[in-house]
Amino acid sequence: MITTAEEAKTKWCPFARVGSYQMGAVNRSALAPADWPHCIADDCMAWRWWNQPANEAKHKGYCGLVGKEAA
Predict the structure, then answer these.
(1) What is the pLDDT of residues 22-40, one digit of tens each?
(2) Residue 8: which residues within 8 A CB-CB, separation 6 or more?
(3) What residues does each domain of the chain span?
């Protein structure tokens, strides 16, 4: 999904892991998504910028792990 970096940071990332459990790094607890593994958007090496308008607030991108270009 093409979105602003700030909007992306409110979304859950299936690749995020937290290693605070004895069983290893996880991103789910009791088969439900946890609150903490959010997207880090433009701080992630997989983040791709989609456009570059004059207004930086509307600068959008997407997770590069979804493929070539997310529509």
Answers:
(1) 666 666 655 555 566 788 8
(2) 39, 41, 47, 61, 62, 63
(3) 3-66
Mean pLDDT (the chain, rounded) = 76
What local confidence, expressed as pLDDT, does residue 26 receive?
63
Phi (first) and psi of residue 29, to 5 degrees: -135, 125
Asked if 47 and 63 count as a contact pair (C-beta separation under 8 A), the reply is: yes
Q: Is 56 left (phi over 0), alpha (psi -120 to 50) or beta?
A: alpha
Single pTM value for the model = 0.67
CA dist 63 and 28 (Å) reads 20
User: Rounded distance, CA 34 to CA 26, Å?
Assistant: 9
